[in-house]
Amino acid sequence: MSKQPRKQRKSFYRAPLHQRHKYMGVTLSPELREEHDRRALPVRKGDTVKILRGDFKGHEGKVENVDPKNYQLFIDGVSVQKPDGNQVYHPVHPSNTMILELNLDDEKRNKITERKG
């Protein structure tokens, strides 16, 4: 891997979707860290997150949509009003959030949280 910032940025922005999923990792709350023995997990639709930075700092809500192509999360209740009066979701970068509750409906995700290492 190169040390050059331009190559770092190039690999980040041209990454395939399976690698972008790993970049969408979000820190876990202290309780979840103790429970699952991990520091972070990739965020998924249905997780409850808390925003740590930005205009919506302190807001908690469920993740409505995850956009790995643009590295964005759309969270319930985090919206802005357009000039025509419509409400649209305000995108949040995953690094600015913390997972409070995990959505464990999926078997594969359960296996990920249970494995060690």
Task: Tell me what you see in this structure.
The chain is an alpha+beta fold and 117 residues long. It has a single domain (5-114), classed as SH3 type barrels, CATH 2.30.30.30. The chain is built from 4 helices and 8 strands, in the order H-H-E-H-E-E-E-E-E-E-E-H. A 6-stranded mixed sheet has the order 2-1-8-3-4-5. The protein has a two-stranded antiparallel sheet with strand order 6-7. The longest helix is centred in the N-terminal third of the chain and has 9 residues, at 5-13. 15% of the residues are buried. The mean pLDDT is 94.
How are the SSEs placed, and which strands pair?
Blueprint: H1 5-13, H2 17-23, E1 25-28, H3 30-36, E2 40-42, E3 48-51, E4 60-67, E5 72-75, E6 79-81, E7 87-89, E8 97-101, H4 107-114
Parallel strand pairs: 1-8
Antiparallel strand pairs: 1-2, 3-4, 3-8, 4-5, 6-7
CATH class, named Mainly Beta
**Unreliable stretches covering 5 or more consecutive residues:** none
- Distance N terminus to C terminus? 23 Å
> What value does the average pLDDT take?
94
User: What's the arrangement of strands in the largest beta sheet?
Assistant: 2-1-8-3-4-5
DSSP strand tally = 8
Helicity, as a percent range: 25-40%
What's the gyration radius in Å?
16 Å
Which shape, going by the Cα principal axes? globular
